[in-house]
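Weekend entry, working from home. Most of the wet-lab plans are on hold until the incubator is repaired, so I used the time to fold the two sequences that have been sitting in the queue since the last round of cloning. Logging both here for the record. First:
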Amino acid sequence: MKKLSRNQRVIAITKMLTDNPNKIINLNTFTEKFNAAKSSISEDLVIVREILKELNMGNIETISGAAGGVKYICNISDEEKRLFIDELCQLLKDKERVIPGNFIYMTDIMYNPQIVYKAGIILASAFSNMDIDYVVTVETKGIPLAYEVARMLGVQLVIVRHDTKVTEGTTVSINYISGSSRRIQTMSLSKKAMKKGSKCIFIDDFMKAGGTALGIVDLLKEFESELLGIAVLIDNVGTPKKMVNKYLSLIELSGIDENGSVKISPSKFIK
């Protein structure tokens, strides 16, 4: 490969790191790819680290040891968080989104790559200092958001099902009480989906009473695993009594009034 200028290397290194969040990349990988000395690559990394830190776009951590190297940790500025959440709240306040039963239509939002990407960074940055093995979600509209959080944390996504599939092999199933309907429901997970003793976070699109989140806690116990955190895009604060205590949300929904106006605002986590 021909020799690249410092600017060219800095751009390429930034691309490689941000495309592989939380993955350790050995310096030899850069020296071989760019045909450059380790001293030059080290200087390039200093530039990348300083720029990302100054712009609140993430951090480059150095991992020492024989298997060490550098890795990118995602981040986003408080100003960008507020701007994004404010715009999302305005989008959700549209009366046209209110459908029969006083539900808010969210499918287009949960499958919008730009929205999910930004929400994923915000939630992932909240857990970036934790040693996490898996991001867990249930088979609902929250899958794209959970996938983005898992990608930014550099870990595997595990999807819990409401029914069993032959293709999943042997599964572990539990019954749990839905916090909203108070009905007994079932969730299941393949024994091959997760290693015992894992540390996980649960990501979902919406929380009403927290019954699903509590069910995830109980299901993980069957795998001798631990739930370190819970985060949702929207928290229905109109249901004050939750079945779980500690969780993060980006938006708080207070309800929908008689005129069809959606009462929604940024969560305390954003403020």
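Second, folded right after the first finished:
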Amino acid sequence: MRIRPYEPRDRADVVDICIRTGDNGQDATGLHSSDALLADIYALPYVNHEPGLAFVVDNGERAVGYILGAADTRAFAEWFSSEWWPTVAGKYSSDGELERSIIASAENPERMLIAAVDEYPAHLHIDLLPEAQGQGLGRQLIETMAAALAERGIPGLHLVVGSGNTNAQAFYRRVGFTELASDAGGIAMGIKLA
């Protein structure tokens, strides 16, 4: 398996990976009225807005993992709110409490702005299918993203991980992230870049 830059041909794989890891690292297939909801919020906006900060793990046949990011979270949140979400929101109904919660989150660009956003302006999403886990590829993806952001002069990188996703929390700590803040929904973690 190798890490390479995202290419447009990876789009369907990115959607699949997002769905199959969208429930705190577990398969979210069938949890929402449309499986594409999670990808339209947490994956596709990134490959559309900043494809230069998208990298995939390629198993020789397809992408089986990715890291996606935005160098400037404030600018990304504004773009997401004004340009991206209005083009996809109409596909989704708010038929249920979980669905309403996810849609309400997507409609609020402030959700992306952690208190330390100026110190850690970039953010990421990373997901690996089970076949790509436990091989050091997650660490390599983080290092790849950190290097790309450092080349741009970005001082810090953050992410938010679900409160219940303890495996991911432990992984982020192992690769150098520290806790910045937490609430009932998740933990914001950040890392300084060279």
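Plan for Monday: verify the second prediction. Residues 2-192 form a domain with the Aminopeptidase fold (CATH 3.40.630.30).
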